[in-house]
Structures are given as structure tokens and as C-alpha cells.
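Reader question, answered in our methods column.
A reader sent in the components of a multi-part assembly and asked whether the whole thing could be modeled at once rather than chain by chain. We filled in our standard form and ran it. Here is what they sent:
COMPLEX SIZE: three components
ENTRIES:
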Amino acid sequence: MDKAHIKYTLSWATLALMIVILIVVMTMFDIIGPYGLTTIVLIGINLIAAIGLNLIIGMSGQFSLGHAGFMAIGAYATALIVTAVPTIFGFIMSLFVGAMLSGIVALIVGIPTLRLRGDYLAIATLGVSEIIRILIMNFKFTHGPAGIFAIPSFVNWPLVFGMAVLTIIVVVNLVRSPTGRAIIAVRDNEIAAESLGINTTKYKVIAFVLGAVLAALAGGLRASFIQSVSPQDFTFMQSITILIIVVLGGIGSISGTVVTAIALGILDVILQNFGSLRMVIYAVVLIVVMLFRPQGLFGRSEFSLKKMLFDSGGNHDKDHSKGA
Amino acid sequence: MTKTILKAHELRVEFGGVTAVDKVTIEAHENELIGLIGPNGAGKTTLFNLLTGVYKPTSGDVFIDNHDQLSPINQLSPYKRAQLGIARTFQNIRLFKSRTVIENVLIAMTAANKSYPIQAILRTPKFYQNEAQNRQKAMSLLEIFGMTQVADELANTLPYGQQRRLEIVRALATTPKILFLDEPAAGMNPQETAELTDLIKQIQVQFKMTIVLIEHDMKLVMAVSERLYVLEYGKVLATGTPKDIQNNPAVIKAYLGEEG
Amino acid sequence: MIIQQLINGMILGSVYALLALGYTMVYGIIKLINFAHGDIYMLGAYFGYFFLRVLHLNFFIALILSMAICAVLGMLIEFIAYRPLRHSPRIAVLISALGVSFFLENGMSYLFGSDKRSFPQAIETTQYHFGSLQISNIQIIIITTAIVLMILLNIIVKKTKMGRAMRAVSADEEAAILMGINVNRTISFTFAIGSALAAAGGMLIGLYYNNIDPLMGMTPGIKAFVAAVLGGIGIIPGAALGGWLIGILETMTQAVGLSNYKDAIVYAILIVILLLKPTGILGKNKREKV
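And here is the structure of the entire assembly that came back:
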């Protein structure tokens, strides 16, 4: 690592640390109450799932509507294992098992279905997700439609915050590597990528599996935090909730996903005051944002500390020409 | 006797009852520059697609030199053929538009360079070392074609001629044995075409590879090709040196006759 | 027994088919999965409810009025939420459609409550028996109405100028513009027709199941979309075929005692069909030009 890299990494680490300190200070002065902390945790969980989906939709260009199914696998793995082994070790185990299981399912499903294109893939992944949910609803060991209650909680905001940061690091580092370049190449022009010796299926599957693993992680955190799971939590609507974060942020932009997950979390808090009009307003916001920002808030561009802090300004702003 | 790099034997393909390529047998030797000409719809691009694996033939075989032996590649998908040394460009440019020029080249180097996602995620010293090496390789390739100063431009912001050039550089980055160029001069002005002519010759000499060229610009084809195949209605009408072809009555009638 | 199930399946399938036709036409013309389509079906049922319960109209007059109003609403939705995004990434329009769907579902819940309402028994049920087969006049009305509407649609698409314009825009929008076709009007017209068919589906299902609620369009909406994909999206006869197939599949799985798994089986079959024939049953494989 050269000096510039160290400087760059340190500035990101400082930013993360500043956010932590900010949250701690705000809790000390009661600006953020228990309700606020719950919001922060839920934002973090949605963020992890959304980054996974952005990897699938944004980076590899495969339209998946099945994220809820993979979240369900993670959630039920945690619910069952933590109920049986209510220790922190059991919890960590459960996240690991859920992620592995979800990854395996994604691999089995992905290899044949990722040949499908566009909306056909979307409907196939939707089908897979619904099949997972219906199986969970009918299995004895998952406690059928009622679901599982009183799951021991091991989740607090520092844990979710750490996991979210870790997720971002893993995904960003992967995207900015030969593997990530190949994934994006397949998205940009599949025929050209193949003509250059790139195994297109392999890279689509890598993105799909990693996305599913992150979904399961989010599901596991959610199960332990909310302390209950039921098949109703993982319908098509759950996939849509995550999809909306990705699209509003800008497909293919990790910074966009982060900002939108936070913004929608805060919007949700504000909308609580509107009672039953809440969802109507949410719907209008959704339509209006799309009409005025069809590329999403960030387009495909990324927020860059490097540009803000280290560039002398003479450099013209290529990445931002399309988006923010 | 020079080594045969690629061979197609009685290659035939049908699309919904229409025979687009009909029992075509061709051979390309080491370091040879072959021109593939023929009227529109003669099946030239379809033949390219059969050789590179985009389409599967109805019958016939394709072989490529693999460690000094011709091995059949009929069943292989395009990416596996590419890994065996087949590279190509496209009639309608297919760059990775959202990526920079150097990234386009780096992507082409993916298959040849083993990379480990875990190294990338952990950003190990080995990762930085490999990245630096790859970048250097890509840069030196861009340098040969005078494109270093646009290395960090987005591919789709380049002028047309440069985009075509980048597509060729990208194909070369896979270190192929044989390079297929599908109408590289299409849409170019005479100045750009002249540059391209030099470029193709330069590649053949400098990279010592076999090049197969589809081109409508007769001046270009005749200037660079050592041997020509003429295709008409999916069949090989004639083959020989540019001089032979120019004097071949059947070709004059079928093809050159159109223009004169 | 099997024939009885087949008939029941055909009836449910007819409603899916009516919905699927709208999906497929809209998809064919602007490549949008119109997530709000199921909610138009819900609105159709609510307008029908109003005409029957409040104005005490004849069922068929109510049906036609409800179809007409939903046709206008469909055009309005397209004009406000989709048209400005015509040249934006497709997924932006998709999210806008989801927004419209949320708006309609929650707006209706807000205005009229989220509880189920009983749909007026505008036509008294009589059962007919043919040997061991049993069929009600309501079922006959559903299937006949659906078939009549499909025939009408076929005539509109095949014989009228507007129908020709629809097919032209669907095949190649730019060429259609060059031929002097008014694309905006054609797309509006497509939404009008699709929405009218959905409204009819909503009213028929209200009559059949006797109750309606603001979320009634969600599940049938997704299933109708699945039906459209199954038949080959963008292909009008494919939507009808897909709708009937899914209806029959559903009732058949119920009949063999797998009703808990009926949706799972439908999706599993869908996935298998897509893997064997990636563009749906009647779809044509398009080769990308290289």
C-alpha cells in the first residue's frame, strides 16, 4: 500500500468513527432515544440487504425480484439456531449457517436461471422467493404461518453498524478488482465480455450468490433484533422495499444505496405522524422522486472522499457527468 | 510449410430453413493476413460468428491449433474459444461503455490472469502488486497504439475511429493466436482508414499473429491481405492472392462487377 | 371429477386471462411491468360496487360503466406517472408503477377502509346440473363475458386502425413514428383497453367471490403477470393461454389436496417452462444481432 492509499483509507475510517461518536453523543444528550436507535438498526439491516441487491441488479445487471426469499433463509436460520442455542456463539453460528445456506440455494437456483434475460429472470427469481416462503409456511419445523416468537436478541446498533461498514468494504473492494470489473463487463456488454474469454455465467453467479449471502445476513440480524419471524415478513413486498432503496439511490451506486437507506429510514419516522395517510404519502414521494430523478439520486456515480479532500480541483469530474 | 492455426471443414448453418453458410472450408496459417470479402448478405459475419462460437453450426467442424495440434472446438462456448486464442472485434462496436479505456483493456486480461476475490476483499499487498502489474501491461499496450493520453477517458466519449482502435487493442489484450476483424473500417473517413491500414500491418508484424479481416473497403483489403476468400450466397466462390482474385472472372462477374 | 375441476379452473383462469391481457399489451408496447394493473382490477370492482349498491344499476350496465371509467383512469395514470419517464431507464418506470400501486391501494384503504365489503348479489345464483357436473349461471356469465371481451379485443387489434397502430408501435416504435403513427395516442389507447379488461375482471371476481377489499388486486396481479410471462409476454393469445393454464393448475393442485402448495407449484412449473423455453410458451426466440 502506498501513502495515498493509506491517507485515503484513513479518511474513510475517520468518517465512520465520526458517525459512531455522533450517535453516541446524541444518545447521551437524549436526542436519539430508544426509538431512534431502533430506527438506526433497521436502517443498517435494510442497508446490508440493499447493498446485496445492488450488487446483483446494479453491478451484474441481473434483475432479481427474489431478495425476500434469501432474507427469509437467513432469518429462519437465526431464529431456529438461536432459540436452540441462546448464546452469542449460537448467534454468530446462526448468521454463518444462514449465509451459507442462502448462498447454496442461490448457487443452485442461479446456475440455470441466470441464463434468462431481464424480466424473465425477474419473474423466475420472484417465483423462487415465493416457493421458499410457501415451503417455510408449510414446514413443521419452521412453525408454519404463525412463525417463531421470543427469539433471543443479540443485536444492538454498534453490531449492525459494524456489519454494515464491513459489508460496504467487502462489496466496494470486490467491485474494484478484476472480479468486479468482469462482473460489470458482463453487465455492459455480455457478448463482448464472452468474446474476451470471460465466463459470463460464472460472474453472474458470483454476484448473485454474494447478494444472497448479504440478504441472509440482513435477515438473520433482523430476526434476532425484532425477536420474531413469520412467513408474512418475507413476501414480494419485502423484495420491493429493498428494490426501492436500490433504484432510488441509483442502480450501481453504493453511495446512493447508503444515502437512500438512511433517507427512507428517516422518512419512515416522519411519516409515523401521519397515521393511515403514511403509505399514501410514501407512494407520492416515490412517484415524484422517479419523475424528477429517473436515474436515482446518484445515478451510477459514487461519493468520493478522494475527490473532496485530495484533488486540487483542476481534474474534471468524469464520474459525475451523468448522475449527481 | 507454415503451421495451420485455424481450420473450418464444410461448415454449414441454417436459420429457419435458410442456409446462411453452406459447406465452407477455410484455413488460416500462422502469421497470415486473410481477407474475407463478398457482397452484403454473403454470410461473412455469420461465418465469423460460427468460428468464434456465437452460433453453433448445423454441420461441419472448426479446429484450432492447441499446442501444435489441431483440436476440434465445435462444442465450445465463445469464452472457451477465446481462452484458446480466438479474439475478435464487432461490426457494431461493443465496448464497455461505462468503463474507462484502460479498464476496457484490463477486463480483456481477466481470463489470462488468475485473481483471487479474497485478496481483493482484504486488499493484500499481493493484490496491489497484481493490479499494478496489470495496469502496467495495459498501459504498455495502449502506448503501442498511441492511446495512453486517453487511458482514463470513458470509452464512449472517444471519437469513432478511436473506439474502433480500442476494440482492437482490447482484443489483443487477450493475447490471441488469431484475430478476427469485422469491418474495422466501417464508418471511417479516408484519413482514419489509412491509419487503420497501417495499424493492421503493424499488428501482424509486431504481434506475429494471424488476422482474418472482413472489409468492404477494397483498397484496404487489397493493400493488407496476403490471401483472400470470396464468399457468395454462403459459399466460397474463390480463393487466392489479391492479384488472382482481381483477375478471376467469376469474382469480377459476381462481385466487382457490381461496382464497375 | 377432473372435468368439473377443469371447468372451475377455466373460470378462475378467465379472470386471470383478462388481467394478463392488460399486462401483456402494456408490456408489448412500452416494455413495462405495470404493477398498478392489479389495482385497476380492484378499482373496477369498487366502481361496480358503487353502481350496483348505490345506483342499483343492471349488472351489465354497471360493468360497461366501470370499464369505461377505468379506461380513463388507466390513460390518466399513464399520462401522469409513466409518460414523462418514457425515455428513462425501464426500472424507473417500474418503480413509478409500484408507487401508483401503493397509492391506489392505500388511498382506497384511507377513503373506504381496509375491511372487506360484500359485493352486491346483482344476479341471483342458480346451479345447473349436467350429470355429475355442476355449473352456476354466475360461472357461465364469467366465462362468456371473458370470451366475448377477448373476441372484441381480437377484432380491435386485428381489424381497426388503432389496433394496427398498436401492433406497429409494439413491433418498432421508431418505424411507427416515421409512418406517421401517433405513438402517444396509441399508448394511451393500449392503457385504456387493458384497464377496461382489468375492471371487467375485478367486477366478475366480485360477483363470484362476493367480497372485495383494497388489496384484492395484489395476488391476482402477480399471478396474471406470471400468466402473461408463461404464455410469452407481449403476445396477446399467450396471455389468454397463460391465464387459463394458471387457473386450471391452481384448481387441479387444490383438487389433489395440495392447496397449501398451489402457488409454489404454479411458480415451479413457470420456472421449468422458462428454463425450457426462455420466452414463454408462444414466445419467439429473438437472436441478438452480432
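What stands out: The CA atoms of residues 183 and 206 of chain A lie 8 Å apart. DSSP finds 13 helices and no strands in chain A.
Send us your own complexes using the same form.
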